[in-house]
């Protein structure tokens, strides 16, 4: 089985500082990520600078309650003038880099940067014109499915595959920040796999590694997780982001889970050779003379396995020993013969 791919989502964890963004790319590389992911938008390309209630996040939201969408995205966005420098750095370090575009201009911008693939964010799964525009680039696409109906995912997948027969991966995602493990509903990975016949993965907003490890066991080939330098630094995404040590642990745990899946063919494993040798078999348990009757008094089922398998007990019981044998001799069928009775 191929090892899973790991995406470190930077999002707003650069805290508005280019040096932090660069450091996050270095940390992602050191932590075992295969790719870092940016988000390419400005506040004005993703929302309107309006403060009426519909443009505010509900006050009950645990992280961003009461904030206007514009102010949140103004804080969290990655300046476009940073992108080339960040792409160049990632190439130098040997780690993949790509982004989620949120409008046509962002796609054009990323095309100029020769992005190798695209990510469609959960809240954009219904933006069919944007999805069509992304698909027409012919690049591989990873699409999150949080807060989406199956009908919306159906149309998104249909649109992508109509214009782009290249690689598509759907990420199961619970669009809650942070998400609780019980809200992950990982069994839906199988639904996505069976319904669309594409690779699946997890965009994980839970804390810890448990949900991601379980997703690997259910067929996830991609794990995306937000990465921060230190949650104590704050920022819009800090509360549901992994620290560098946590991300490294995530990669290790998920790789071990992937390795443990192995194959489904039932065969004796080389690593079990010694255990096979130590399975039970029939042994002479005390010295016997030729002509004695085979019985529980002189034969036992014991470890190791060089005698007859115990399933032959009924066949040999009551037969006579052909030869005198000493205790500890593995019993063979030729050591016995039928009685004349």
């Amino acid at each position: 089985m191929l090892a899973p791919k790991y995406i470190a989502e930077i999002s707003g964890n650069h805290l508005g500082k280019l040096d932090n963004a660069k450091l996050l790319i270095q940390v992602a590389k050191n932590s075992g990520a295969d790719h870092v992911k940016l988000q390419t938008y400005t506040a004005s390309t993703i929302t309107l600078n309006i403060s009426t209630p519909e443009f505010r996040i509900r006050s009950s939201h645990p992280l961003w309650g009461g904030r206007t969408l514009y102010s949140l995205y103004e804080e969290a966005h990655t300046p476009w003038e940073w992108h080339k420098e960040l792409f160049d750095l990632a190439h130098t370090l040997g780690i993949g880099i790509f982004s989620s575009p949120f409008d046509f201009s962002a796609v054009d911008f990323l095309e100029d940067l020769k992005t190798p693939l695209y990510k469609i964010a959960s809240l954009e799964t219904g933006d069919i014109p944007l999805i069509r525009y992304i698909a027409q680039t012919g690049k591989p696409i990873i699409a999150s499915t949080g807060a989406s109906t199956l009908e919306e995912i159906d149309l998104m997948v249909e649109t992508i595959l109509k214009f782009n027969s290249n690689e598509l991966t759907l990420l199961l995602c619970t669009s809650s920040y942070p998400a609780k493990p019980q809200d992950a509903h990982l069994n839906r990975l199988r639904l996505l796999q069976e319904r669309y016949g594409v690779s699946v993965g997890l965009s994980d907003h839970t804390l810890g590694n448990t949900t991601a490890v379980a997703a690997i066991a259910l067929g996830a080939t991609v794990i995306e997780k937000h990465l921060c330098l230190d949650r104590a630094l704050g920022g819009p995404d800090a509360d549901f982001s992994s620290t560098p040590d946590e991300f490294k642990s995530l990669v290790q745990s998920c790789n071990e889970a992937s390795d443990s899946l192995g194959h489904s063919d039932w065969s004796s494993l080389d690593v079990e050779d010694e255990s096979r040798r130590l399975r039970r078999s029939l042994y002479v348990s005390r010295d016997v003379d030729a002509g004695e009757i085979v019985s529980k008094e002189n034969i036992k089922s014991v470890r190791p396995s060089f005698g007859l398998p115990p399933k032959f007990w009924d066949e040999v019981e009551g037969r006579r020993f052909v030869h005198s044998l000493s205790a500890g001799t593995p019993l063979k069928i030729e050591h016995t013969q039928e009685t004349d009775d």
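Residues 244-261 form the longest helix (18 residues). Residues 270-337 form a domain with the Type Iii Antifreeze Protein Isoform Hplc 12 fold (CATH 3.90.1210.10).
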